[in-house]
Design brief:
- This protein is mainly α and about 475 residues long.
- It has one domain.
């Protein structure tokens, strides 16, 4: 009887078939999962830049208004991104352990969390946007543009909520090509609609900044719906069943054990951007516009690395759950090499062509004078950023996101903002930009220390299985 019980798998712990994350050669697997994500995120970065390029054609105040919106948008992405990281890590680990019930429960609770997050940002869009802008500037034109743009972004955020979570479910099961399709579709729709709605082409009304926000949420909603359909039709490893559903505190708790540190980590970015805007606008609104342009441009470099991360996380989490040390370690090593290579290319572009990059945004002579040294100085932190990003992502995938949170706090609150504030007291805005490479150097030192600790305590004790390819 005892042996029979050992050999019998209950319906609640149905054994899953072998997944490619445990069998495919690591380099081929990482590239097959990451490259589609990198391409789609490049398109995402492109439409973020295109959005600002068109808005800059209205005037510099409109561009500044979008720059000042970053903290709220960053907070939204932080909450959705952190929740999605928790979902991805939990679900991929359950797949590695071949626990079907946990996989399905995670997916159903993920759908519940979409609704809660959307309600929060809908309320923010109705009540918080005006005081948020007034806390940064008293310029009535900038405030008016900002309220028009950010209120619609927040109230229409159901699309980005769906997109984040349903795309992450596809990534968790290795279907990154599907995710590429949804992200590229949303981005292309946004790029097409931007000039039509901003400037009133083809008989549409000229909506200005409002047009930019409507184009954005339209692309996100369509992409979110497509991601949902692809999950229902193609994601056979996940079974949605909301009939009689009740949210599981245990599952949600497990998601946010990983997710909350990630949310805090990314939310710190919101605080950093808000603080930097306050420091820079004390010089001139042009300095804030330059910082906003830099943030848009750096996304073109960072998004491919984040796409690499999205491909790496489920592989690391799966092989950690399957206790396959060799595949886990090789995935991390290859990710570091690819990430640092991408960042070096970005550094070269920022150092050689800063005037050309600023020219895309109709930069005035004053903006060029301020922006060229800004881009050259800030981009120096790219030298270290690729390594830091992969390190913090590895901590999240292994369930040690608290390390990632600590690094983010040190980089942005302990180092970057205080350094920027102190450098601003020297009286020249160009000094402020040096805060970025200073903060990244601190971050890389801490990341190395934590990676050594994680290897000794978590990875090294895993018994060796086989030589991987």
């Amino acid at each position: 009887m005892t042996d029979l019980k050992k050999d019998t798998t209950s319906a609640s712990e149905e054994i899953l078939p072998a997944n490619k994350m445990g069998t495919m050669p690591v380099n081929k697997l990482l590239l097959s999962m990451s490259v589609p994500m990198m391409l789609s995120m490049l398109v995402q970065a492109m439409y973020n830049i295109v959005d600002s390029i068109f808005v800059a054609q209205i005037n510099e105040d409109a561009l500044t208004a979008l720059s000042l919106a970053f903290p709220i948008q960053t907070l939204m992405i932080a909450i959705l991104g952190g929740t999605s990281v928790g979902i991805n890590a939990f679900l991929s680990k359950a797949l590695g352990q071949k626990k079907q019930k946990q996989v399905d429960e995670c997916a159903n609770n993920a759908v519940f969390l979409i609704g809660i997050i959307y309600i929060v940002f809908f309320i923010i869009g109705l009540t918080f946007v005006k005081p948020f802008y007034l806390s940064q500037t008293k310029d009535t034109q900038i405030v008016e543009y900002g309220i028009q743009y950010l209120s619609i972004i927040c109230c229409g955020s159901i699309g980005i909520c769906m997109q984040f979570v349903f795309e992450k479910l596809l990534q968790s099961t290795g279907k990154t090509v599907c995710t590429m399709a949804t992200q590229m579709t949303g981005a292309i729709i946004n790029i097409i609609l931007d000039p039509i709605l901003i400037f009133g082409y083809f008989g549409f009304p000229k909506l200005g900044v409002i047009g930019a926000s409507v184009a954005t949420i339209a692309g996100q909603i369509i992409a979110g719906i497509i991601a949902l359909i692809l999950n229902l039709k193609l994601n056979k490893e996940i079974h949605f069943n909301l009939k009689g559903f009740r949210p599981s505190g245990k599952i949600i708790g497990q998601i946010y054990i990983v997710g909350v540190p990630s949310i805090i980590m990314q939310s710190i970015g919101s605080v950093m951007v808000y603080g930097m805007n306050k420091i820079l606008i004390s010089f001139t609104s042009t300095a804030t516009a330059v910082f906003g342009v830099y943030y848009k441009l750096q996304s073109f470099v960072l998004m491919p690395v984040f796409g690499l991360n999205n491909g790496m996380v489920p592989i690391v989490a799966y092989n950690y759950g399957a206790q396959n040390k060799e595949r886990l370690v090789k995935t991390v090593k290859l990710s570091v090499v690819y990430a640092m290579g991408i960042m070096m290319v970005g550094l070269a572009i920022f150092q050689v062509f800063p005037d050309k990059l600023l020219g895309f945004f109709d930069a005035s002579d004053k903006m060029l004078e301020m922006g060229i040294p800004a881009l050259k100085i800030i981009s120096l932190h790219f030298i270290f950023a690729g390594f830091d990003i992969i390190g913090t992502t590895m901590f999240q995938a292994l369930g040690s996101a608290i390390f990632s949170m600590f690094i983010s706090i040190c980089r942005q609150l302990v180092a970057l903002l205080p350094a920027a504030y102190l450098l601003s007291k020297l009286g020249k805005v160009n000094y402020v930009w040096w805060a970025f490479p200073i903060a990244e150097i601190m971050a890389v030192i801490i990341t190395i220390i934590f990676m050594i600790h994680i290897y000794k305590k978590v990875i090294k004790p895993i018994p060796s299985k086989e030589k991987v390819v």
